[in-house]
């Protein structure tokens, strides 16, 4: 008979947890730090995609990205002997998989075939507002006028800056980006809520594993159909997308959202387009205009306001 089945079990030792304002403040700071690390990882997504597209077609890239990410996630789940999620969790996991594992990567990769990374950053500028709006509607939560005002101003600054950088001419890529914005907001919000019931890394891990059959089938069809040219940039970009942006980045992002809330964490993404532009200069050779420091200061002010505003 196993110990856990015995009628005589040792009494559980209750370990007191810190409570009070100091513990809450510490949890908030940790949540902000984790969400910020996620934003930093996401800021490399578009440059890494541009690198990977040098040697892979869009469908091959997305399929291989999902496949590698799913294998990494599945290996972690098996190594740690993690049990399958409860039945009630699977609808939210499907939303996470559809929005962040399949929808957003595919749509933004298709957009980056004809769009620059700076123009694609527009969708990231809009994402905090759509994520906060989706979460508020879904959960029936309210936030102060100061919170929403700062969010709108910050998003407007980011959009104006990104559009000014790229010219902002509406095109097919804009339609892809707009669709990516909608599906990703749902995936972020559902994943952030689910991370309150299960560890954040398991949320994205199970979403990736859920997509393994689709990824394997897609790679089998796309790789023979599209040209493949393996370069250092291609390998580095693909590995970062699979392991960095898609797994580690989502892991810390969901943990951060579960600690400080979906709407507030999403406002940290206002800094993501500016970070992406910096990486674009360093990694892709794009030029940055003198407007960048002004936009950066304005966005940081807005982030500070949203973090302090109370609902």
Write up what this structure looks like.
There is one protein chain. This protein has 311 residues and is mainly α. It has one domain (43-308). 75% of the residues lie in helices and 0% in strands. It has 13 helices and no strands. It has helices spanning 21-42, 45-52, 58-79, 90-111, 117-139, 145-166, 172-194, 200-210, 212-225, 232-260, 262-266, 272-284, 291-308. The longest helix is centred in the last third of the chain and has 29 residues, at 232-260. It is globular. The chain starts with 20 loop residues before the first helix and ends with a helix. Mean pLDDT is 83; it is low at 1-19.
User: Which range does the strand content fall in?
Assistant: under 5%
Indicate the structural class: mainly alpha
Instruction: Please state the overall shape, judged from the principal axes of the Cα atoms.
Output: globular
Count up the domains. 1
- Sequence stretches where pLDDT stays below 50 over 5 or more residues: 1-19
| β-strand number | 0
What characterizes the major β-sheet? none
Helical fraction: over 70%
């Amino acid at each position: 008979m196993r110990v856990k089945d015995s009628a005589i079990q040792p009494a559980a030792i209750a370990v007191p947890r810190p409570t009070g304002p100091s513990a809450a403040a510490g949890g908030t700071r940790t949540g902000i730090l984790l969400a910020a690390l996620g934003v930093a990882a996401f800021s490399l997504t578009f440059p890494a995609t541009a690198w990977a597209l040098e040697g892979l077609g869009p469908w091959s890239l997305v399929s291989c990205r999902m496949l590698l990410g799913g294998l990494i996630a599945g290996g972690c789940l098996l190594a740690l002997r993690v049990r399958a999620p409860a039945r009630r969790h699977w609808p939210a996991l499907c939303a996470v998989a559809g929005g962040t594992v399949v929808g957003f990567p595919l749509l933004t990769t298709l957009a980056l075939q004809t769009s620059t990374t700076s123009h694609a950053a527009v969708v990231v500028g809009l994402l905090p507002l759509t994520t906060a709006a989706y979460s508020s509607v879904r959960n029936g939560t309210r936030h102060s006028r100061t919170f929403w005002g700062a969010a709108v101003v910050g998003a407007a600054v980011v959009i104006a800056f990104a559009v000014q950088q790229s010219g902002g001419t509406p095109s097919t890529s804009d339609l892809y980006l707009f669709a990516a914005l909608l599906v990703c907001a749902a995936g972020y919000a559902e994943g952030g809520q689910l991370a309150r019931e299960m560890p954040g890394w398991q949320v994205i891990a199970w979403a990736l594993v859920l997509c393994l059959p689709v990824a394997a089938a897609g790679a089998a069809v796309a790789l023979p159909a599209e040209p493949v040219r393996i370069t250092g940039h291609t390998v580095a970009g693909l590995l970062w997308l699979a392991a960095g942006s898609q797994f580690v980045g989502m892991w810390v992002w969901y943990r951060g959202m579960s600690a400080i809330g979906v709407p507030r964490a999403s406002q940290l993404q206002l800094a993501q387009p500016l970070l992406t532009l910096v990486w674009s200069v360093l990694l892709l050779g794009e030029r940055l205009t003198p407007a960048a420091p002004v936009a950066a200061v304005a966005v940081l002010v807005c982030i500070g306001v949203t973090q302090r505003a109370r609902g």
